[in-house]
Design brief:
- The structure is a single chain.
- The chain is of the alpha/beta class.
- The chain has one domain: TIM Barrel (Alpha-Beta Barrel), CATH 3.20.20.
- Helices cover 48% and strands 10% of the residues.
- The protein contains 15 helices and twelve strands.
- It has a seven-stranded parallel beta sheet with strand order 3-5-6-8-10-11-12.
- Helix 8 links the parallel strand 10 and strand 11.
- Helix 1 crosses helix 13, helix 9 crosses helix 10 and helix 11 packs antiparallel against helix 12.
- The longest helix has 25 residues.
- The structure holds 6-deoxy-beta-L-fructofuranose and manganese (II) ion (2 copies).
- This is Sugar isomerase.
Length: 424
């Protein structure tokens, strides 16, 4: 389904006056709004191919209808999101959930929607029908060399697929770990994992990056072999310059100070990118910013500070991606909400008075420092995010237009009510 640009223009016309009034007011509260809007126009957040359908839980799944039945339909859905918000210009594939049958056709379809291929993700946390060995006791860490080799080869195959699509990074997330004390020799599991990762790293083209994602628990509940940022850092440091740590917001122990982790990884030049989501209890994979918007802002505050200190390009030097799943919402609406929340946090971070903050820090003026951050967080920047969309030909209110156009009903009409998208 391709969105008619006239419909976006008509929608924007209807909201234009109210929007301009808000923008004028925002510009009276925030300095240098032009520079912020320009950065927002450039900022893109990749959509994971597995988040376009309803995920469900291990207790049940309630399909929503009209879900993409193929990679082509997933690309069309991301194209639709991008047309609505001009901030979702990339798709991240999970292999073998997504296997392009005709790569040239898939590339052409993505280009038609203005989409790039973000990091490709390997999957050694599930057994595939045609695979010889099982990953029940781990993949890259496995005590059995043949199993490790199978997992390494899968990653190499994924790299090859990514190369052909024009991607330039591989995200490795391992479910490897143990469920009971004594099950695993931690040191040997580490050494096996490192050796396997080295083989994968060596197989990457020289312009590729490897992102190593960590997770404190689940599906293993006693130990995870890449459990936290320190462990991921220890691997990527040994692998080489193009190996970096990937931070998934849902993968920390409760109350972890993620913004500090981000700051240190950036300083070490070892931050690769993000999987954005939100959570209250664990790896809930809820809509970004739905629970802890202040934390999201504080993370972006460190990102902007750290990237600027290193002279990095905000839009291109890190991998920005959503990693969410949906049980009760229309996945497309949810993704629009996530992107909006991320853009808001980014805009708020851009609006922080950095010079004043530095002075307050150097004077140990704790009250002032808090005032500066909270002022940025509490100032409404939504008009800036909307203006960035307007300038790029996208919709002032993407969720409202999505509903107004009856997109989900149209997708159900085209694809049917009982559809099951591949993924979690
Ligand atoms: C693991 C994870 C990882 C997987 C995705 C499906 O919890 O965050 O990124 O690839 O979920
Ligand atoms: Mn993730
Ligand atoms: Mn996760």
């Amino acid at each position: 389904m391709i969105l008619d640009s006239n419909k976006i223009a008509a929608h924007n016309d209807g909201l234009y006056t109210a929007h301009k009034n808000k923008l004028v007011f925002t510009a009276s509260e925030i300095a240098e709004t032009e520079a912020i809007i320009k950065k927002l126009v450039d900022f893109q957040i990749a959509i994971p191919s597995w988040a376009l359908g309803t995920g469900g839980t291990r207790f049940g799944r309630f399909p929503g209808g009209g879900e993409p039945r193929s990679l082509e339909e997933k690309i069309e859905d991301v194209g639709l999101l991008h047309a609505l918000n001009n901030a979702s210009g990339a798709i991240s594939l999970h292999i073998p959930w997504d296997i392009p049958s005709d790569r040239n056709a898939i590339k052409a379809l993505a280009a038609q929607h203005g989409l790039k291929f973000d990091a490709v993700n390997s999957n050694t946390f599930q057994d595939q029908a045609d695979s010889q060995y099982s990953y029940k006791f781990g993949s890259l860490q496995n005590v059995n060399k043949s199993i490790r080799k199978q997992a390494v080869q899968h990653n190499i195959d994924v790299i090859q697929q990514g190369v052909e699509l024009g991607s330039d990074s591989l995200t490795v997330w391992l479910a490897d770990g143990s469920c009971f004390p004594g099950q695993l020799n931690f040191r040997k599991a580490y050494e096996n994992t490192l050796e396997s990762l080295q083989e994968i790293y060596e197989a990457m083209p020289s312009n590729w990056k490897l992102f190593l994602e960590y997770k404190c628990a689940e599906p293993n509940f006693y130990s995870t072999t890449v459990a936290d940022w320190g462990q991921s850092y220890s691997y990527v440091k040994k692998l080489g310059d193009r190996a970096k740590t990937l931070v998934d917001l849902g993968h920390h122990l409760p109350n972890a100070n993620i913004e500090q982790i981000v700051s240190i990884l950036l300083m070490e030049d070892k931050l690769g990118g993000f999987h954005f989501n939100d959570s209250k209890y664990g790896d809930d994979d809820l809509t970004a910013g739905a629970l802890k918007p202040y934390q999201l802002f504080l993370i972006f505050n460190e990102l902007v500070e750290g990237m600027d200190a290193r002279g990095m390009n905000h839009a291109t030097d890190l991998g920005w991606m959503i990693d969410a799943s949906h049980n009760v919402k229309d996945p497309m609406e949810d993704l629009l909400q996530s992107v909006e929340a991320i853009m808001i946090a980014y805009a708020q971070a851009l609006s922080v008075d950095r010079k004043a903050l530095e002075i307050a820090q150097n004077e140990n003026d704790v009250v002032k420092a808090q005032e500066i951050l909270q002022n940025a967080f509490r100032t409404d920047v939504r008009a800036l995010v909307a203006e960035a969309r307007l300038r790029a030909g996208a919709a002032l209110n993407p969720v409202a237009l999505y509903r107004q156009l009856g997109v989900r009903d149209a997708l159900i009409g085209a694809r049917g009510l009982k559809t099951v998208a591949t993924g979690l």
